[in-house]
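wait is this the right file?? whatever heres the structure
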């Protein structure tokens, strides 16, 4: 049955791609110099917000590779808060003028092209996958100076005159307060009570930077959005959420734990704060205040927690209802455990109580799930490549989440319910109602026993990440706090 479903899904994707390929070839032949035909299209793994493709075109001189960035599902989704893909293309053209490595832009789609929002750009031969950059031997030399070089590149980005360049006319300007409130409001609109997010939002509003500049902010500058060769950074990519704001946002995001991929060094997993700050100061002449970077590091985990929840909304209602988007929703707890480690560290233990498993069903549900996960990993992944293989891996991971939920969720929720009753003095109320009581108390800054609150948040977030992703490094940091 599963094999049949897999074949049908692959055939469906093939039919969609064939239609897309025809439109794309017409555009390339008409708009790209010396392009005679489109030989192949491959969607690359990752990139839940946008789609990235490798294009192989035929020219008089032979084959040539290009890259395509396109809106998810090929659907244009206008936003007052983002420059869009046309704006992203413009930004890459501008930053190249100040020495920031970025790919050349060859063509930006128009509405008449009927291919969605997107653009065709230079193909860069390098590595963008963060884990490979951190672990493969060929990048050992470049890793030694990578944090310093990131500092220098960020200083160049922040040096661009936003008025002279016209960016002030097409990018949103946001103060630190604006950005915190916008992100917090976005989360509130989901109507999903997550007390750690509200605790962090409250902390951020009480600790806003007082002195800050307003510059171009890349807003996604991190390990994973840097194209790296064995010698240097050859491209800064993914400019889709750039804005005008506090430049320290970029430094804090680069230091976020999510983009260290399990490594201990704070800057992208490859460098130290001192190396990053020195590179920035040498290039810009501005002195870095570490406390301001810490603020934006906390904000980064807050923003990532909310953004992951937003992926669930896009999965349910958006143009790309893929398993990737759904699974990213469960990564919200990764950002929340990082907020715990940054703001409320302390002693905590993972709850290992297991649910009773009935022997009345044969096979049990957990056995069925285990075999489905094994099928995806051992058979589907071995028969597929590229994005299909990637989605099979994501699907297997999602099934593993369900397996852990069957084992642990009941006990975790009982612990949370009892803790909330003590914390907010509630009785005979549902878990959801108690959560909302705590959330409203945090939003309204009602006094709650601070030590008990921190202990509650630590325990509930630790229990959640133990279900969602027990291999995430933030969990190990929380459990081994000293």
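ok assuming it is, sequence goes like this
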């Amino acid at each position: 049955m599963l094999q049949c479903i897999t074949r049908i899904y692959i055939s469906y994707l093939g039919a969609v791609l064939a239609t897309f390929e025809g439109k794309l070839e017409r555009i390339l032949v008409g708009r790209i110099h010396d392009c005679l035909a489109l030989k192949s299209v491959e969607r690359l793994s990752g990139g839940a917000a946008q789609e990235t493709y490798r294009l192989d075109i035929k020219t008089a001189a032979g084959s040539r590779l290009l890259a395509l960035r396109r809106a998810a599902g090929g659907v244009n989704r206008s936003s007052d808060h983002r420059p869009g893909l046309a704006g992203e293309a413009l930004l890459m053209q501008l930053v190249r003028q100040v020495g920031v490595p970025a790919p050349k832009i060859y063509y930006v789609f128009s509405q008449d092209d009927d291919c969605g929002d997107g653009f065709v750009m230079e193909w860069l031969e390098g590595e963008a996958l963060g884990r490979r950059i951190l672990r493969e031997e060929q990048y050992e030399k470049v890793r030694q100076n990578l944090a310093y070089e990131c500092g220098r590149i960020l200083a160049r980005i922040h040096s661009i005159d936003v008025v002279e360049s016209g960016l002030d006319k097409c990018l949103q300007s946001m103060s630190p307060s604006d950005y915190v409130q916008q992100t917090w409001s976005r989360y509130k609109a989901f109507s999903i009570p997550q007390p750690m997010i509200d605790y962090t939002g409250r902390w951020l509003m009480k600790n806003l930077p007082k002195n800050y500049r307003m510059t171009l902010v890349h807003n996604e500058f991190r390990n994973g959005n840097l194209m790296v060769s064995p010698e240097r950074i050859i491209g800064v990519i993914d400019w889709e959420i750039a804005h005008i704001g506090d430049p320290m946002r970029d430094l804090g995001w680069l230091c976020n734990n999510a983009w260290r991929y399990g490594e201990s060094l704070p800057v992208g997993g490859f460098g130290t704060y001192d190396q990053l700050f020195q590179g920035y100061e040498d290039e810009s002449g501005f002195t870095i205040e570490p406390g301001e970077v810490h603020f934006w590091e906390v904000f980064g985990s807050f923003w990532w927690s909310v953004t992951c929840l937003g992926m669930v909304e896009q999965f349910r209602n958006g143009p790309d209802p893929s398993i990737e988007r759904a699974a990213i929703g469960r990564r919200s707890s990764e950002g929340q455990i990082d907020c715990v480690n940054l703001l409320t560290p302390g002693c905590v233990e993972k709850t290992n109580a297991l649910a009773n498993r009935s022997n009345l069903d044969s096979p049990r549900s957990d056995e069925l799930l285990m075999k489905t996960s094994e099928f995806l990993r051992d058979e589907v992944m071995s028969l597929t490549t590229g994005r299909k293989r990637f989605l099979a891996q994501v699907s297997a991971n999602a099934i593993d989440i369900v397996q852990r939920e069957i084992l642990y969720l009941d006990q975790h929720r009982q612990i949370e319910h009892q803790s909330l009753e003590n914390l907010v003095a509630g009785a005979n109320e549902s878990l959801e109602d108690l959560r909302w009581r705590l959330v409203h108390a945090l939003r309204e800054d009602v006094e709650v026993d601070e030590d008990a609150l921190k202990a509650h948040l630590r325990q509930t977030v630790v229990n959640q990440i133990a279900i969602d992703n027990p291999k995430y490094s933030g969990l190990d940091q929380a459990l081994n706090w000293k």
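The mean pLDDT is 90. so i think its the right one actually
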